[in-house]
Design goal:
The chain is of the alpha+beta class. It is built from 5 helices and 9 strands. It has a single domain, classed as Pnp Oxidase, Chain A (Roll). Strands 1, 2, 3, 4, 5, 6, 7, 8 and 9 form a 9-stranded antiparallel sheet that branches. Strand 8 and strand 9 form a beta hairpin. The two termini are about 15 Å apart.
Length: about 190
């Protein structure tokens, strides 16, 4: 199995193939974070874009994931494209992107999603769904005649990879695994035993 020397180009190829295969939410990725005490949490977020600097997702900066990233920036991402018998695992560090970069994406979101970002104190306990719905209507009225500003507590994280593993299922469980490791400003590729 031939692999590209550049893991970002290899990811772009597989990502396009996942989209062409009509995998539902091909940009869905699991992200695992850990607190400074070692408590591990995993959840699904959406990859919004990527480039040679890393993989970007957006969230509430007061969420549990953001709190854990602040304590321990080491994270892992997983794209499970089961229909293609593929997965991509990314290990690296997460860092906040600039407010300007966050605003650019925020401004492109549907208005309802912009309002929703203002409504939720992500991961906090609420007494009922009506609390969210009332807050949504309040924010909707507040900004009914203008642009909705970027909340100070909302924005993006970029996961800067140190390692990227591509896994391709094969017959007899003799799967192909290719591990890219970033060292000395370049990427080394190793073919791993399944």
């Amino acid at each position: 199995m031939a692999m590209n020397n550049n893991p970002f180009e290899q990811f772009e190829l597989w990502f396009k193939e996942a989209q062409q295969a009509e995998i539902i939410e091909a940009n869905a990725m699991s992200i695992a974070t850990a607190s400074s005490e070692g408590e591990i949490t995993i959840r699904t977020v959406f990859l919004k874009y990527f480039d040679t600097n890393g993989f970007v997702f957006f969230t509430n900066y007061e969420s549990k994931k953001a709190q854990q990233i602040a304590e321990n920036p080491n994270v892992a991402l997983l794209f499970p494209w089961l229909k293609l018998e593929r997965q991509v695992k990314i290990m690296g560090t997460a860092e906040k992107i600039s407010a300007a970069e966050s605003f650019k994406y925020f401004a492109s979101r549907p208005r309802g999603s912009q309002i929703g970002a203002w409504c939720s104190k992500q991961s906090s306990v609420i007494s009922s769904r009506s609390v969210l719905l009332n807050k949504f209507e309040e924010i909707k009225q507040k900004y009914k005649d203008g642009q909705i500003p970027l909340p100070s507590f909302w924005g993006g994280f970029r996961v800067v990879p140190k390692k990227i593993e591509f896994w391709q299922g094969k017959t007899n469980r003799l799967h192909d695994r290719f591990l890219y490791t970033h060292a000395n400003n370049s990427w080394e590729i190793e073919h791993l035993s399944p």
